[in-house]
Design a protein that fits this description.
single chain, alpha+beta, Beta Polymerase, domain 2, Methane Monooxygenase Hydroxylase, Chain G, domain 1, 2 domains, rod-shaped
Length: 334
């Protein structure tokens, strides 16, 4: 899909007719998953070769940041901002003195926000570089908002982790929220949630790194195109990205801390299980010893002809099992 925008708002572009010429006052050409016909129309109008998705996805810096005869070719991975399908997709900028061409493959609210700002006269998009700055500024704002949302999610997740045992009650029944199976499921969910946040932050970090490189490269290569009011905006953007990157670093440290805490809870649960098994095995040793002793087939055993020998043996087995339990209870192991 192709949309055109001038300094004052949206521009009609003749629908999907491949033979229709693009308007001269189209300053920003936005291509969202463009067809071959749309790419050909833009190339014919601007003289700029539209890169494919594979070309925009290349990871080496020389492919992502290039100066060619017509202007700058820039690309970066960008998060989808869709929490249900949080992924990285390529985003390309083709910047010349007369045009800004953006190539993307997913919907982004930042682009809709820039279009609205230009339509409402809230943003200065009278040149290609100013339009470029509007788009990048909105992307940076969106990334900052996304990190703020993640910060709130991590606060809630932290509460769930460190209050994990606050509702525990002794003698839990089957189906109770504190039953072993429920606790195991809850810990699995916590671990998955921490992992998802870690993956999301890594993708946000990749987007921030790509934008930081684009800003620095564009500022250095477009000195002759920048006005006196545009150069400080590049410096402001660089500062904003640096501060957001620091915030993302702190969130990543929080994720690592929560991961360690969750693994600690899992380790405690495993230790509890092993402790129960250990106590059971120790409690079973004395009764086994007593039963083994009186199970020996010797001819002369004093208790063999005793009328109370059998009750005596049972009582001795019971006492030998209860005494270790009382000892462990007194020590606080149970």
């Amino acid at each position: 899909m192709m949309s055109l925008h001038g300094a004052t708002g949206a521009v009609e572009h003749g629908g999907a007719d491949g033979g229709a010429s693009l308007p001269d006052h189209a300053l920003w050409i936005d291509l969202n998953d463009p067809t071959a016909e749309e790419a050909a129309r833009v190339e014919k109008k601007t003289g700029i070769r539209i890169p494919s998705r594979a070309a925009l996805s290349e990871v080496e810096s020389s492919s992502r940041l290039r100066r060619n005869r017509d202007g700058l070719s820039l690309s970066t991975p960008m998060v989808t901002f869709d929490r249900s399908d949080f992924s990285l997709k390529p985003l390309g900028f083709l910047l010349t003195a007369d045009h800004l061409v953006t190539v993307r493959f997913h919907e982004m609210r930042a682009f809709a926000a820039v279009r609205k700002r230009v339509d409402d006269g809230d943003g200065d998009g009278t040149t290609s570089t100013r339009m470029f700055l509007l788009v990048v500024e909105e992307l940076v704002d969106n990334l900052a908002d996304l990190l703020e949302e993640m910060s709130g999610d991590l606060d809630s997740l932290s509460t769930r982790i460190f209050d994990f045992d606050s509702g525990a009650r002794p003698g839990a029944r089957k189906g109770d929220t504190t039953a072993p199976k429920r606790r195991d499921l809850a810990l699995r969910r916590l671990l998955r949630s921490v992992g998802r946040h870690g993956k999301s932050l890594a993708k946000v970090r990749a987007s921030l790194l790509g934008l930081a490189r684009i800003i620095a490269f564009t500022k250095g290569e477009c000195q002759q195109l920048l006005g006196e009011d545009e150069l400080p905006r590049f410096d402001t953007l660089a500062g904003d990205i640096a501060s957001i990157d620091e915030f993302e670093t702190r969130l990543s440290e929080t994720v690592q801390f929560l991961l360690d805490a969750t693994l600690g809870l899992i380790n405690i649960e495993q230790n509890n299980a092993f402790r129960v098994l250990t106590v059971v095995s120790v409690v079973g040793v004395p009764p086994t010893l007593v039963a083994s002793m009186y199970g020996m087939n010797f001819k002369h055993m004093p208790e063999l002809d005793w009328a109370y020998g059998y009750p005596y043996g049972l009582a001795l087995i019971a006492i030998s099992a209860v005494v270790p339990l009382l000892y462990f209870k007194a020590k606080g192991w149970l």
